[in-house]
Amino acid sequence: MSSLLGQVILHPKVSQAMAVLATTIGRDKTYRLIQYVARILAWSFARQGAVDLAKRFDALKAALGSGRKLFRVFKPVENLQSALNIAERPFVKISGAEQVAQLTQFLRQVAYAVFLGTDSLVWLQSVKVLRLDKDKAAKVAKTSMQAWIIGLTLSLISSSASLVNLRAQSRRFALRADIARKDEKGPDAAADEAERRKQGRALLAQRQLIMSQLITDAFDFWIPSNFLGYSNLNEGVVGFLGATTSYMALQKCWRKAGAAAK
C-alpha cells in the first residue's frame, strides 16, 4: 500500500502538476478554471431549482474571484514595464502590419494596467480597506471592465495584424525556399534543406501562438461585454467561455512545466 502511495505521489505527472501550481500564473489559471466551472454549475443548479447548491457554487465562484484579485495587485507595474519596453522598439523601419501590431500591443498593456489597477481597488473595497460608497464602487468596477474590454479589443487587432505580417513572411519564405531548392547542388544541399525546415516549423509555431491568443481574446471578450450590458449571454455560456480560455492558458503552463522537467 505504501509502495503504491509512493508511486502515485512521485509520479512524473504529479510532479509536473506541482511545478505548475508552484508558479503564480499556474495557480491563477487553476483557480480561474475552477471559478468558471463553478459559474456554470451555479447557473445549471439554479435552472434546475436546486437553490442551495446554486448558492454554494456561486459563493465558491465569488471567493475564487476575490482571491485571484489579490494575486494581481502588483500586475499593473508589470504591464507598464511591458508597455515601456514596447515603446523602446524601433517603429519607423517596420512594415505597416508590424506598426499596427506594435502600437496596439503598447496600448493593450496600458489598458490592462488600468484594468488591473482598478480591479485591485475593487478588491480593496470588498475587504473593507477602502470605504467607497455604492455608486463610486460601481463606477470603479465599470471602469475596470471597460479597460479590460478595450485591452481585449486592442489585443484582437494586434493579433490580426501579426497574423497578416506572418502570412507575408511565410509567402516570402516559401518563395525563397523554392528558388533555393532549384539552385542548390552539392553536399550542403541537405543541411540547407534541414535549416529551411527548422525555419518553417518556427513560423508554424508562431502562427499557432498567435491563433491561440486570438481565440482566447475572442472568447474572453464576452465576459466584460456581458458585465457592461453590451451583450446578453446567460451565465452558463459566459462560464463556458471563461472555463475554455482558462483551460487553454493552463495547457500552456503544463507544457512549459513539462519542457522544464526534461
UniProtKB/TrEMBL annotation:
The keyword Membrane applies. One of its GO terms (cellular component) is peroxisomal membrane. It is found in: Peroxisome membrane. Keywords: Membrane, Peroxisome, Peroxisome biogenesis. It holds the Pfam family PEX11. GO terms for biological process: peroxisome fission. Coiled coil: none annotated. This is Peroxisomal membrane protein PMP27. The lineage of its organism: Eukaryota, Fungi, Dikarya, Basidiomycota, Agaricomycotina. The gene is PEX11.
